[in-house]
Specification:
With about 180 residues, this protein is of the alpha+beta class. The protein folds into 2 domains: about 100 residues, Ribonuclease H-like superfamily/Ribonuclease H (Nucleotidyltransferase, domain 5); about 90 residues, no CATH class. The chain is about 20% helix and about 35% strand. The protein has a 5-stranded mixed sheet with strand order 3-2-1-4-5, with helices on one face. Strand 8 and strand 9 form a beta hairpin. The longest helix has 15 residues. The two termini are about 35 Å apart. InterPro entries: ISAs1_transpos, Transposase_11, Transposase_11-like. It holds the Pfam family DDE_Tnp_1. GO terms for molecular function: DNA binding; transposase activity. This is Transposase IS4-like domain-containing protein.
């Protein structure tokens, strides 16, 4: 049976263990970063962050322990770091990173491409759209996804040369009382 790249999807995320702090000894809660092998449904090599450290350093340790060849590694915004992206690509893998305010230049460059597309200035840009509409817990969630190849004039290409595609996701939630909230990622 031939495996696809998606069979090697690895999701990296950090969690803080509840009630793991020891205030009497000045110790904060225990924070653990794990890689989730979606193919097998198991956590791989959990790494505890060092005291006075953060998730970023633990991700680097975890990546050294993992086989990244032909893997697609997903990481939330905390892991959206140039060194982490470089490490994944150097190991033969690809990445999907959530971009937020911790990378303002990259977030602005992505927003500029999306905005130009929505204004009709990027009609020739190869892209895909997807939309879902789900109901549950008394609310309605509409999700809109847009993804495209990185255009040649992408403003962040120099700092992020490994990026092949960009995208955005919009969720509009209609609550039971009729109010709406939205989230753009």
């Amino acid at each position: 049976m031939r495996r696809s790249v998606l069979d090697r999807l690895v999701a990296i995320d950090g969690k803080t263990a509840r009630r793991s702090h020891d205030a009497g000894h000045g110790l904060g809660p225990r924070h653990i970063v794990s890689a989730w092998a979606t193919e097998h449904g198991v956590a791989l090599g959990p790494v505890a962050t060092e005291e006075k450290s953060n998730e970023i350093t633990a991700i680097a340790v975890l990546l050294r322990q993992l086989g990244r060849k032909k893997a697609v590694v997903t990481i939330d915004a905390m892991g959206c770091q140039k060194d982490i992206a470089r490490n994944i690509v150097a190991g033969g893998g690809d990445f999907v990173l959530a971009v937020q305010d911790n990378q303002p230049k990259l977030a602005a460059a992505i927003a500029a491409v999306v905005e130009k597309h929505l204004e009709g200035e990027r009609k020739a840009l190869r892209h895909r759209n997807h939309q879902t509409d789900t109901h549950g817990h008394g609310r309605r969630d509409e999700r809109f996804y847009w993804g495209a190849q990185v255009p040649p004039d992408f403003a962040a290409k120099g700092e992020w040369p490994w990026i092949k595609a960009i995208g955005t996701a919009v969720r509009i939630t209609t609550h039971p009382d009729g109010t709406q909230t939205d989230e753009v990622r």
